[in-house]
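Inverse folding, one chain.
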C-alpha cells in the first residue's frame, strides 16, 4: 500500500476492491462446475457485496462526498481471471489464486485499519478482516476431494 494515499483515497481503493471482487466471484460461481466450489464462490461474492455496503454506510459520516459520488456499477472482471477461478480442470490452481487474492485483501484491510482514525470505521474494518479470514479458511477447506470431483464433472461436460 502506498504511504502517499490519504485515508479517503484508501477507502476509495477499498470500495473498488470490493466491487471487483464481487464481480469476479459471482461470475466465477456461475461458471464453476463443482457444486462445493460454486457454493464457496457464491458465499464470498455475497460477503464482498456486504463489505461494499458496510464501507459505504460506515464512511458516509466521515466522507459524505465519497459516498455520494461512489459509482456502485459493478465492473466486468477480466475473463482470464474468471476462467482461472472457474475452470474445473484447474481447480487446484483456481483455489490457490482465490486464496492469494483474499490474502491480499486481508493484508490491505489490516493496513487500512491501522490508519483509519474513526473508531466506528475501525470496528467495521475489523468485521471485514474477520470475514476475509473466514473466506481464506473456506477456500482452504476445499481440499483434494472437491478438486477431484470438479475434474470428473469437467470431463463429463466436455
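Residues assigned per position:
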Amino acid at each position: 500500500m502506498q504511504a502517499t494515499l490519504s485515508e479517503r483515497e484508501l477507502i476509495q481503493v477499498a470500495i473498488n476492491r470490493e466491487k471487483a471482487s464481487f464481480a469476479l466471484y459471482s461470475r466465477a460461481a456461475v461458471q464453476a462446475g463443482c457444486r462445493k466450489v460454486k457454493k464457496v464462490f457464491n458465499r464470498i461474492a455475497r460477503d464482498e457485496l456486504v463489505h461494499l455496503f458496510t464501507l459505504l454506510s460506515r464512511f458516509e459520516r466521515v466522507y459524505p462526498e465519497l459516498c455520494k459520488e461512489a459509482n456502485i456499477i459493478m465492473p466486468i472482471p477480466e475473463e482470464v481471471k474468471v476462467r482461472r477461478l472457474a475452470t474445473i480442470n484447474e481447480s487446484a490452481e483456481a483455489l490457490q489464486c482465490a486464496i492469494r487474492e483474499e490474502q491480499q485483501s486481508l493484508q490491505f484491510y489490516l493496513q487500512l485499519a491501522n490508519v483509519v482514525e474513526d473508531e466506528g470505521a475501525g470496528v467495521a474494518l475489523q468485521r471485514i478482516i474477520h470475514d476475509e479470514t473466514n473466506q481464506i479458511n473456506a477456500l482452504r477447506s476445499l481440499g483434494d476431494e472437491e478438486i477431484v470431483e470438479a475434474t470428473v464433472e469437467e470431463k463429463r461436460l466436455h
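The mean pLDDT is 78. The helical segments are 7-31, 35-59, 64-69, 79-86, 91-115, 119-141, 144-157.
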